[in-house]
Amino acid sequence: MQAPPSGGSPPPQPAPPPKRKPARRKPAKRPAAKKPPPSQQQPPPGQQPPPQPPPQPPPATPPPAALAPATLIASIIAALSVAVTAAGLAVALAKIMKAAGIGYLALRAVCVLMMSWPESPLEGTGPAQRYMVRQNTLRRAQFMWSACKRVQAAVVAARSQNVPVRQAVRDALATEKRYMAQHIAASNQRVKASSAVDGAAEAYGNLLGWNAYLDARTSPGCRAASGKNFYADRPPVIEGAPSYPGAVHPSCRCWPSAPFRGAPVLP
Description:
By secondary structure, the chain is mainly alpha-helical. It has 2 domains: 69-204, no CATH class; 206-267, no CATH class. It contains 6 helices and 5 strands. It has helices at 69-82, 86-99, 104-114, 127-160, 165-204, 220-225; strands spanning 207-211, 229-231, 237-238, 241-242, 255-257. The strands form 2 sheets. A 3-stranded antiparallel β-sheet has the order 2-1-5, covered by helices on one side. Helix 3 runs antiparallel to helix 4 (127-160). The longest helix is centred in the last third of the chain and has 40 residues, at 165-204.
């Protein structure tokens, strides 16, 4: 590069680039303060706040629906069919019995009693026996449910009177034992009567005759049924309940025979 001539002016220098101004950041917008609801706003000075309504209680929980008796009986039948011990029977029925208002103390006491019920046949050989086996199973469960209610009532009465509860349970069970003995005798009588009906049906067919001893001891229902016919596979309604000859009541002396020609059929 050659030196500039002596006495001459220096060559012009290029202009510096313009300085950029730093960008200003906009301040962030603050969220506007939310106004409290009218119920929480402070009244102006000197003004009384409006009266607030009293707090409403939470809605009451509706009570559980009452268990249908058929549901209870079905549960008892299922538990009795598989129970081996009283403790197992009580465990199987504890939840549903609690919902029905039966305490565990009363339930356990009745379960011990029910396990002493003699074993009954699970099925019959003829239509009459099969029907009576089902009836005995149903009535056994109905007795247990009634016994639970009676023993539970004895527990409640003992607690309200401040008397020993266990003694009250023992006294109630003594009464239930007598009731159970009557139920067992009636069950055996029904099985015996149905066996006689099945035997007569094998000899004479499904249509049979109803016979009763007619004397001063004969009940009105048996007297009215005597001399009429009935079907072995469908027990007629005698004195308000389906029954076979010999099982209408504890002292029934009726028996089945060949059908009476031209006689009406009992409903």
